[in-house]
Design a protein that fits this description.
468 residues; alpha+beta; Arc Repressor Mutant, subunit A; 6-stranded mixed β-sheet; elongated
Length: 468
C-alpha cells in the first residue's frame, strides 16, 4: 500500500502544485475546475464514463484538489468562499504569491495582492475575468495523454487541437494590474486605472494588450472615464535607470515601440448580465473617446496612421468564448459601424492591416523595380560581352582566338606604338616564330665564326629567276 508523504498528505506531485501556483498567481482567485482547465486541459476529456456531471467534474479535478490541499497545509493557499453555483473558490496567501512569483519568473512586487474576501460576494467579476482568460488562452489538450480514451473523446480532443490557437501561455497573463497615474507601481496613488487583464504574447503578435471586462453595469461615460485613466497612465513619464525620462509603462513592458507607433491597445469585453445594452453603449463610447483613438490619413494615401493614439477594440464574452482571438468578432473603434460586417480578428483589429498591405505593395514594387534593374544590367552585360567577343582578334598563324591576356598585350600603346613584336599572332605561334628567328640568328653567328659562305639560293628561286 502506498504511503502518503508527510509533507504532502494529499499525495500531490511537485508539478501539480507548481501548476496551481502559476494559475492562481495569475488569476488571484479561481475554482478548482478553472485551474484544471488551464493547467491540465487533457483532463477535461477524461472520466466520461462517470454517471453524472458532478461525478465527472469531481474525477477531473481530484488531482488539483489534492494539490490545493497540500498547499493549504503549508500556508500557501486558502479557501476563498463560494460562487453561486456552489463551487469553492481558492486563492493564494502572501506566502503563496511569493512562491508563485518563482514559478512565473516574475518579481514579487508585480504579483499584486492576495484575493482574500473575493468570494464573500460571489466573485462575479473575477469569474468573468477568468472566463475571458480561458477564452483568450484556449489551452489545448495533450493527445498523447488521451491515447486510451474512446474514439469520440479523441475526436473531440482532436477538434480542440485543430482549432485556432489562443494567445501565449498562462505566464503571458496578469490580472488586476495597477496602472498608476500618480504614486509608484507598488503604492499607486489616486486617479489611476486597474487593468483587469494584461497580455504580453509577442510570439503570437501581441506585444502588449490591456483588457477591460464590463458586466454591462456601467454607462458609456463611466467607461470613457476608464479610457481617460489609461491615457493619463500612458502619458506619464518617469526617469529610467539611465537617468532619461521615458513613458512609465515602458519601464515595466520594454517592448520595441517607436515614438510614432500607436500606444498599446485596449480591449473591452462586454458580458451582458447588467441592465446596459452594449449595442448602445459601444457606439456611444466610441463617440465620446474619439479624440483618443482617431487616425489621420497617411501622406501616401490608402490608410490611416495612429501616432501616439490608443487603439480601442470591443467584443462580447459570448463571442470570445465561442470563437477565440482568431475569430472575426472584434470591432476597432472608427472602422465602420458597430456591426458584424465591420468585425475583424484580434490581430487585425489591434493592428493596421491597410498600412501593412500598402507597405507590402510598396515593398513588392520596389523589389520588382530592383529585379527589373538587375535584369537590365544583366542584359546589357551580356550584350557588351557578345560585342566584345565579336571584336576579339584571331591569330594569323593558327586561326585561334586570342585570350584576354594576349589581347591586352597585343594592343598598341598610348601613342599608337606597338607594344608587342608579333601583335597578329597568339602566344603559341609567337613563341614558335621567335624561336625560329633565334635559331636563325644562332646559325648565322656560327657561319660567320667559321668563315663559311652563305648558302647559295636554290635553283628556281627568286634569285635564280633574277639572274636568268
Amino acid at each position: 500500500m502506498a504511503v502518503k508523504r508527510e509533507e504532502n498528505p494529499a499525495g500531490s506531485s511537485n508539478n501539480l502544485r507548481g501548476d496551481v501556483l502559476r494559475v492562481l498567481g495569475v488569476l488571484k482567485v479561481a475554482t478548482v475546475e478553472q485551474i484544471q482547465q488551464i493547467a491540465a486541459p487533457h483532463l477535461s476529456y477524461r472520466h466520461t464514463d462517470k454517471p453524472t456531471p458532478s461525478k465527472r467534474k469531481q474525477a477531473r479535478t481530484a488531482s488539483h484538489t489534492g494539490a490545493l490541499s497540500d498547499l493549504r497545509k503549508h500556508g500557501l493557499a486558502e479557501n476563498g468562499g463560494q460562487i453561486p453555483g456552489g463551487d469553492r473558490l481558492r486563492n493564494l496567501t502572501p506566502m503563496g504569491l511569493k512562491a508563485a512569483s518563482y514559478e512565473l519568473g516574475r518579481p514579487v512586487g508585480e504579483m499584486g495582492n492576495p484575493a482574500r474576501g473575493a468570494g464573500r460576494t460571489g466573485a462575479s467579476h473575477p469569474m468573468v475575468v477568468n472566463e475571458a482568460v480561458l477564452a483568450l488562452l484556449r489551452p489545448k489538450p495533450d493527445l498523447a495523454r488521451l491515447a486510451s480514451e474512446p474514439t469520440d473523446v479523441l475526436a473531440a480532443a482532436q477538434a480542440a487541437v485543430d482549432a485556432p490557437d489562443g494567445l501565449g501561455t498562462i505566464a503571458s497573463y496578469a490580472t488586476e494590474v495597477a496602472l498608476p497615474a500618480t504614486g509608484t507601481w507598488s503604492n499607486p496613488g489616486r486617479g489611476g486605472a486597474q487593468a483587469d487583464i494584461v497580455i504580453t504574447a509577442p510570439e503570437d503578435g501581441v506585444p502588449l494588450l490591456f483588457v477591460e471586462i464590463d458586466n454591462c453595469h456601467e454607462s458609456a461615460h463611466e467607461l470613457a472615464g476608464k479610457v481617460d485613466k489609461y491615457r493619463r497612465f500612458f502619458q506619464r513619464k518617469v526617469k529610467d535607470t539611465d537617468g532619461r525620462e521615458k513613458p512609465m509603462w515602458r519601464t515595466r513592458w520594454p517592448m520595441q515601440w517607436d515614438s510614432d507607433d500607436p500606444l498599446p491597445p485596449l480591449l473591452f469585453v462586454f458580458n451582458r448580465i447588467g441592465e446596459r445594452n452594449p449595442d448602445c453603449t459601444i457606439p456611444r463610447l466610441a463617440e465620446i473617446t474619439y479624440h483618443y483613438w482617431r487616425g489621420f490619413p497617411a501622406s501616401g494615401g490608402g490608410y490611416h496612421t495612429y501616432e501616439r493614439q490608443m487603439p480601442i477594440v470591443a467584443t462580447s464574452l459570448d463571442l470570445l468564448c465561442e470563437h477565440g482571438p482568431a475569430g472575426r468578432i472584434f470591432w476597432r473603434f472608427g472602422r465602420g459601424p458597430w456591426s458584424r460586417e465591420s468585425f475583424q480578428p484580434l490581430l487585425d483589429a489591434i493592428g493596421n492591416p491597410r498600412q501593412v498591405a500598402v507597405e507590402a505593395a510598396r515593398e513588392a514594387r520596389w523589389k520588382a523595380e530592383q529585379e527589373a534593374y538587375r535584369a537590365e544590367q544583366r542584359r546589357r552585360a551580356a550584350q557588351e560581352a557578345a560585342e566584345r567577343e565579336a571584336r576579339r582578334p584571331v591569330c594569323a598563324g593558327c586561326g585561334a582566338k586570342f585570350t584576354d591576356e594576349r589581347w591586352k598585350a597585343a594592343e598598341p600603346g598610348h601613342w599608337g606604338d606597338p607594344r608587342d613584336t608579333h601583335p597578329q599572332l597568339c602566344d603559341a605561334c609567337k613563341e614558335r616564330v621567335v624561336e625560329t628567328q633565334r635559331q636563325a640568328e644562332r646559325d648565322e653567328r656560327e657561319r660567320l665564326e667559321q668563315g663559311q659562305e652563305p648558302p647559295a639560293p636554290k635553283a628556281g628561286g627568286w634569285l635564280g629567276r633574277w639572274r636568268s
